[in-house]
Amino acid sequence: MDAQPALDPVALVRRFHTAISTLDFAAIEAFFTEDATYSSGKIGGLEGRAEIMAAFRRYFAEYPDQVAEDSLIEPLSGVSARSIWHLTATSRLTGKQLRREGVEIVTFNQDGRIVSVDVTDR
């Protein structure tokens, strides 16, 4: 039996972030397993791809001009990577500018699909 090729979690996070920055919701959704989790101090815990995607759609309906940049993406293990990021966006509802920075840990399964995202704001 052939061994499965090793994952590159850094490359996967870069592809995931590109899908987010281009608002490619189909690609974003394809990254998540059905039972993925997403945790953030800003939004709390989300359970399952459907709930995660609903949150992404709500957020980008309000902040469609988000510009995010990673200052670092590094592997933590063969299936996880950590990114240090910052972003700016403007609320369509209030006109107020949002500025955030933080750390994101993304964990993948052996198929390269996201099983968990943990975001900590700085």
Q: What percent of the residues sit in helical stretches (DSSP H or I)? A: 25-40%
Adjacency order of strands in the biggest sheet:
2-1-6-5-4-3
Spell out the helices and strands N to C: HHEEHEEEE
CATH architecture: Roll
Strand content: over 45%
Biggest sheet layout: 6 strands, mixed
- Mean pLDDT, to the nearest integer, reads 95
Query: What is Rg?
Result: 15 Å
| Inertia-based shape | globular
Ends apart, CA distance between termini: 45 Å
Q: Tell me the structural class.
A: alpha+beta
Assembly context of the chains: single chain
Just give the CATH class: Alpha Beta
Low-confidence parts: none
**Count of discrete alpha- or pi-helical segments spanning 4 or more residues:** 3
Tell me how many strands there are: 6
CATH topology: Nuclear Transport Factor 2, Chain: A
Counted up, domains total: 1
Question: Your description of this structure?
Answer:
There is one protein chain. By secondary structure, the protein is of the alpha+beta class. It has one domain (9-121): Nuclear Transport Factor 2, Chain: A. It contains three helices and six strands; from the N terminus they run ααββαββββ. Strands 2-1-6-5-4-3 form a six-stranded mixed β-sheet. The chain is globular, with a radius of gyration of 15 Å. The termini are far apart.
